[in-house]
């Protein structure tokens, strides 16, 4: 099948995060099994890649440009919904998998071109949908957690197949030998304030703050200023070597204040038996499970400090939760082959609509 993933989120190398990682993993699996994945994403004009793409876009005359930076075609346009019909004429997709920002207008554009829809529900930021998701008649729905599925059922009456985020274990599985408490994505929504409070009360513990969402120059300067007074906090820019990062990590810290749909960083850490101390916001507690300690974001600071300190200093406690984390990562719901089979069954079910028509 020809399958297009389309949404209003940027795509590598211009943007990175859980949505992009999960989509890329699925696209690679599709290509490995003889299908033809493609992506339609917004174009950002910044940076060398963006400047080159802008120049090519002006010359193309078709509203989007295509690159093979990810090993499969990625189409980029200023406004994906406005070029959906043109992409359909060129690609002739059997199914469009719509996700995240602009789900409704992008989905409507593909549906108007006669393409069956699968809507992948990856967050509960309903304002980002761009309309009433119930207007996408005939669409099949996938949710990335029980929490996400429940919220959409409760709010819109939508039933979704639950498929947890796909993870390529080979990119994360390692034998940790470090002593760092690692906090990935040091931005306010992900619990930056709470992480800094914990670090302030644990001066003997080395903390590593690692960029995930790309920080603007102003954000980077502000963060550098905030952590400059902490001798136990170090910052590192985003890395594609997650295995190397996890090898240095003893405890993963995820004190998110955002209503997470899932908690991909927790699942990635679990692949290496790294316990997580994180919040119960949204689906993050579901992702952590028995592989760590989940606390209410507003729990007393002493509870957060105690959870991190004990995991860092108590070998027996750490070993027990490490074992539980690794076991949790191997549960059937996180088996990538099973996840892919379920995903493919939903996509094939949607594709049958075109055949029937």
TrEMBL record:
<dbReference type="GO" id="GO:0016757">
    <property type="term" value="F:glycosyltransferase activity"/>
</dbReference>
<dbReference type="InterPro" id="IPR028098">
    <property type="entry name" value="Glyco_trans_4-like_N"/>
</dbReference>
<keyword id="KW-0808">Transferase</keyword>
<keyword id="KW-0328">Glycosyltransferase</keyword>
<dbReference type="Pfam" id="PF00534">
    <property type="entry name" value="Glycos_transf_1"/>
</dbReference>
<protein>
    <submittedName>
        <fullName>Glycosyltransferase</fullName>
    </submittedName>
</protein>
<feature type="domain" description="Glycosyl transferase family 1">
    <location>
        <begin position="189"/>
        <end position="325"/>
    </location>
</feature>
<dbReference type="InterPro" id="IPR001296">
    <property type="entry name" value="Glyco_trans_1"/>
</dbReference>
<feature type="domain" description="Glycosyltransferase subfamily 4-like N-terminal">
    <location>
        <begin position="17"/>
        <end position="168"/>
    </location>
</feature>
<dbReference type="Pfam" id="PF13439">
    <property type="entry name" value="Glyco_transf_4"/>
</dbReference>
């Amino acid at each position: 099948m020809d399958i297009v993933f389309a949404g209003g989120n940027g795509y590598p190398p211009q943007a990175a995060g859980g949505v992009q990682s999960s989509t890329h993993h699925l696209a690679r699996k599709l290509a490995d099994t003889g299908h033809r994945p493609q992506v339609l994403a917004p174009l950002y004009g910044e940076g060398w890649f963006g400047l080159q793409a802008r120049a090519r876009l002006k010359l193309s005359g078709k509203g989007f440009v295509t690159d093979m930076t990810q090993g499969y075609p990625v189409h980029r346009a200023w406004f994906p919904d406005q070029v959906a019909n043109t992409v359909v004429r060129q690609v002739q997709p059997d199914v469009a998998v719509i996700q995240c920002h602009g789900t409704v207008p992008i989905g409507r554009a593909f549906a108007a071109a006669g393409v069956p829809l699968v809507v992948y529900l990856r967050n509960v930021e309903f304002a980002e949908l761009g309309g009433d998701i119930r207007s996408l008649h005939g669409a099949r729905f996938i949710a990335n957690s029980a929490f996400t599925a429940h919220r959409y059922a409760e709010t819109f009456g939508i039933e979704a197949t639950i498929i947890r985020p796909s993870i390529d274990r080979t990119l994360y599985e390692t034998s940790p030998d470090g002593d760092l408490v690692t906090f990935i994505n040091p931005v306010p929504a992900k619990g930056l304030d709470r992480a800094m409070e914990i670090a302030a009360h644990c001066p003997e513990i080395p903390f590593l703050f690692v960029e995930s969402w790309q920080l603007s120059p102003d954000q980077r300067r502000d963060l550098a200023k905030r952590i400059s007074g902490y001798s136990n906090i170090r910052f590192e820019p985003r890395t594609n070597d997650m295995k190397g990062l996890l090898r240095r990590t003893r405890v993963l810290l995820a004190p998110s204040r955002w209503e997470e749909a899932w908690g991909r960083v927790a699942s990635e850490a679990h692949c290496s038996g790294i316990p997580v101390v994180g919040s119960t916001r949204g689906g993050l507690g579901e992702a952590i499970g028995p592989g760590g300690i989940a606390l209410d974001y507003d729990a007393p600071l002493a509870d957060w400090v105690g959870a991190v300190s004990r995991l860092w200093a108590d070998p027996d406690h750490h070993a027990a939760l490490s074992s539980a984390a690794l076991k949790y990562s191997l549960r059937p719901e996180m088996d990538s082959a099973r996840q892919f089979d379920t995903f493919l069954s939903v996509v094939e079910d949607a594709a049958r609509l075109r055949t029937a028509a």
